[in-house]
Amino acid sequence: MQTNEGNRAGSLAHHGGSALSVQRFEEIDSTNAEALRQFKLLTEGEHCAPSALIAESQTAGRGRRGRAWLSKPGAGLYLTVTRTFSLEPDALQGLSLVVGLAVQSALISLGASEIKLKWPNDIIHKGSKLGGILLELRQVQNLSHVAMGIGINIDLKEQEALSLDRPTVDLTRIIGSGIDKETLFVALLNKLSEDIDRFIVHGFGSFIVRWNEADYYLGKRVTVLQGQEHFRGISCGVDATGALMLKQSAASDPMGSTGEDTMLRFEGGELSPSLRPEGD
Ligand code: BTN
Q1: Where do the domains of the chain lie, and which CATH numbers do they carry?
Q2: Would the CB of 196 count as within 6 Å of ligand 1?
Q3: Which residues of 64-76 are buried (b: 16+ CB within 10 A; e: fewer)?
Q4: Cβ 153 under 6 angstroms from ligand 1
Q5: Cα separation, 280 vs 271, whole angstroms
Q6: pLDDT digits 0-9 by tens, 81-114
Q7: β-bridge pairing 51-58 and 21-28
Q8: 46 φ, ψ to 5°?
Q9: Fewest CB within 10 angstroms: 56, 92, 192, 241, which?
Q10: pLDDT of res. 87
Q11: Distance from residue 152's CA to the centre of ligand 1 (Å)
């Protein structure tokens, strides 16, 4: 079942100067998939009406890298915000990091502590995953219709948390029970509006300092998995495009070193904490 409402007066910021329309679903396959379906209905050159699609549950929630996103009723917040941008798809790497920052700010504004980010798109609390972001895109000529999907764990049953393939945490464990999903929803929309408008005007360069402050792994040993390859090194944060910088020390170069550290740059990939010393 779906219900539609306009911008609930006064409570939600305007997105890109337009009122945001809210679409609520009791159950849906995926709010991102629904956003992509709606993009297909747009005529050439038409911008999508900025919208927030929120569901109580998803039957086929999508995560990054083709993973499923567990989306039972009451277990989490499942939200997709849509906007059309006149920017090159390359700039979207930066946009997805900006969405992470907006989510972090919204959670902190509700009293959650120690909320950090893991490049490129995880919301982290003390090393455990609290939420994730999945941007999906429909490019039509010079317009990028973007579905910004946000999933935040609110109350995972212990068994559900154990069934996930990584340490996971939910908001109830961080700030206690009685979380008002509606307050979180409004805070998210307002922070997103602020940060996306800033991104459009100033680009990701204006978020580097904030992102690196939010980065849980900055200065730590990590492994970046890209395709079948693993790269170990020290995470040095992001550059002006949102790419991750990884420093490999000369001593760890198995091919015999030039005596200098190497800085690698990643536009995509998966980061994990490195349990072994660099070079092993
Ligand atoms: C990740 O793998 O970390 C990203 C998870 C993104 C999940 C959200 S829930 C709302 C939106 N709809 C989806 O199907 N996925 C995103």
Answers
A1: 2-212 (3.30.930.10), 221-277 (no CATH)
A2: no
A3: beeeebbbbeebb
A4: no
A5: 17
A6: 999 999 877 778 899 999 999 999 999 999 999 9
A7: parallel
A8: -85, 135
A9: 241
A10: 81
A11: 9
